[in-house]
Amino acid sequence: MALSRIDTTNMIEDVPQSKLDNNINFRNIIINGDMSIAQRGTSASSLTSSSTYQTIDRYATELGSNGTWTQSQSTDVPTGQGFVKSLKMDCTATGSGGYLHITQRFEGQNLQYLKKGTSNAESFTLSFWVKSAKTGTYIAEFRDIDNTRNISKSYTISSADTWEKKTITFAGDTSGAFGNDNGSSLELNLWLAAGSSNTSGTLQTNWGSQVAANRAVGQVNLGDSTSNDWYITGVQLEAGTTASDFEFLPYDVNLRRCQRYYQTMILVRSGSYYAGSATNVRSGQVTLPTYMRTNASISFSSQGYTNASNLTVDGTDEGHFNTYVATGGSGAFKWEANIVAASEL
Questions:
Q1: What pLDDT is attached to residue 248?
Q2: Are residues 185 and 314 in the same domain?
Q3: What is the pTM of this model?
Q4: What is the pLDDT of residues 123-152, one digit of tens each?
């Protein structure tokens, strides 16, 4: 049976322009803005000092001397918005005088279209849904790591325990270009607590050289009561002065974007060797599911083996690593472990 040709020349004319304008793929600079990916686990408790990733991918916890916290991936979300997960911070022991913020960092090569450091520097708009038992003023800060510059804006949580959508626009910066590489150039800090070292000045609401005292002026202390918590989801950052609808990505696409920085797998290595062979037997090259930002750091846990031990790694790059097994006898060997590959910013 012959196939007929479909003329698609004018098909796009039937789609309203407003729909086309709102369908720009990957307009959201934030990765995992819907909090759906949590490769490390869904909860981390007893947090008192941290500068690492704890649960939800791409969100680091920066915490020092400001109480004790549990961070989790929550199912509490704004009704009717399409979200199914949120990031939750829960205060379990009070503190003051230190700092706490949730951070996402961005590669400079992904930010070049913002034209930072030129006369045509683009403004950008941050939007998100937030909920907290503690009302008041909170600070969202962008920090230019390449040039030690920053800008901070406040937002207000008006009603306790109620999901509210916030939209904040930041002016473009005509000074200090981002490096065009895979290094960390820009950082978003969502402050939850700040001591006097970050609040004793005047809030830096325009781009300028970073002054610690001006970073989080006015920030409430979420750590002043164990009744306090804070939820966030639907985080979007885009060029321009208006916020578009949240860009939902397929789960597999979102996962691969997170795996550029962190990924886990179960690895099984097996083979055979002969008497007189080298102590370390190369057991093969492992291809990572996703090419990573830079040469990955590889670690192992839950190791189990037969006639083998001490798996080591050699020749790591962004997409592969070679494994070597220390043999414990002769004949066949088998080795199995959970693998973590990391190249976080």
A1: 98
A2: no
A3: 0.91
A4: 999 999 999 999 999 999 999 999 999 999
* One domain, residues 187 and 279: no
Handedness of CA 317, 318, 322, 326 (dihedral sign): positive
Domain with 154 in it:
24-258
**66 in any annotated domain:** yes
Q: Final residue of a domain: which of 258, 278, 296?
A: 258
Residue 336 located in a structural domain: yes
Residues of the chain with pLDDT under 50: 1-21, 23
